[in-house]
């Protein structure tokens, strides 16, 4: 089985590409949603988050206090590193279990959608990388519309993920700039599998 990462910075359009491959019948592991689930449901991850960031990291209903955690992590590099040291290993282990199930089920290819391919060490786990790109202004506008964040807040998050925006040798580029058609690019890459 070939494990393919769909990556790119915030607002680049990773989820658009992931949705396309899902519609075409492939399974996709969404690192963001699985990380959120692990932060809520995994007792060890919960304990580490509370020990590191305090009880306020969870709301009264037991869900993650995303606003608090975002404010802390995206304004302090050390806090972001501590958060990543807790969540990334748990997500990577969860993804490996998922990939093993895909392989056992006879899948020929499966996908991992992740904004933090290198930071989380998932670049070492995949066979191929599809890197989705878009101009910064397009990305900022997309994120502002979907999240209500300000221009400055979006750019803070982009800066925190800057290492992920660089394109490594061998990565396949998908341009999602609101001009180039994305679907033909995805179909072309699927034919290479």
CATH superfamily of the domain at 2-37 and 94-191: P-loop containing nucleotide triphosphate hydrolases
How do the SSEs run, as a string of H and E?
EHEHHHHEEHHHEH
Q: Strand tally, please?
A: 5
- What is the CATH class designation of the domain at 2-37 and 94-191? Alpha Beta
Fill in the CATH topology of the domain at 2-37 and 94-191. Rossmann fold
Which secondary-structure class do the elements indicate?
alpha/beta
CATH architecture label of the domain at 2-37 and 94-191? 3-Layer(aba) Sandwich
Helical amount among residues, as a percent range?
A: 40-55%
Low-confidence stretches: none
**SS summary, helix count:** 9
How large is the share of residues in beta strands?
5-15%
Explain how this protein is built:
By secondary structure, the protein is α/β, with parallel strands linked by helices. It has a domain at 2-37 and 94-191: Rossmann fold, CATH 3.40.50. The protein has nine helices and five strands. A five-stranded parallel sheet has the order 2-3-1-4-5, sandwiched between helices. Helix 2 (31-41) crosses helix 3 (43-53), helix 2 packs across helix 5 and helix 3 (43-53) runs antiparallel to helix 5. The radius of gyration is 17 Å and the shape is globular. The relative contact order is 0.22. The model has no long low-confidence stretch (mean pLDDT 93).
Layout of helices and strands:
Elements: E1 2-7, H1 14-23, E2 28-30, H2 31-41, H3 43-53, H4 66-73, H5 77-104, E3 109-113, E4 128-133, H6 136-147, H7 151-160, H8 162-165, E5 172-175, H9 182-191
Helix pairs in contact: 2-3, 2-5, 3-5
């Amino acid at each position: 089985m070939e494990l393919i990462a769909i990556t790119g910075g915030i607002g680049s359009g990773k989820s658009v590409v992931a949705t396309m491959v899902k519609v075409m019948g492939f399974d996709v592991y969404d690192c963001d949603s699985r990380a959120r689930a692990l932060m809520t449901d995994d007792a060890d991850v919960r304990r580490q988050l509370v020990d590191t960031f305090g009880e306020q990291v969870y709301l009264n209903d037991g869900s993650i206090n995303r606003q608090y955690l975002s404010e802390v992590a995206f304004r302090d590099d050390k806090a972001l590193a501590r958060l990543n040291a807790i969540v990334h290993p748990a997500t990577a282990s969860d993804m490996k279990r998922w990939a093993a199930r895909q392989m056992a089920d006879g899948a020929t290819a499966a996908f991992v959608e992740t904004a933090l391919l290198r930071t989380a060490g998932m670049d070492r786990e995949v066979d191929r990388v599809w890197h989705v790109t878009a101009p910064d202004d397009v990305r900022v506008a997309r994120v502002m519309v979907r999240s209500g964040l300000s221009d400055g807040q979006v750019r803070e998050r982009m800066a925190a993920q800057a290492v992920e925006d660089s394109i490594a040798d061998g990565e396949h580029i998908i341009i999602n700039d609101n001009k180039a058609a994305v679907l033909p690019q995805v179909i072309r890459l699927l034919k290479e599998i």
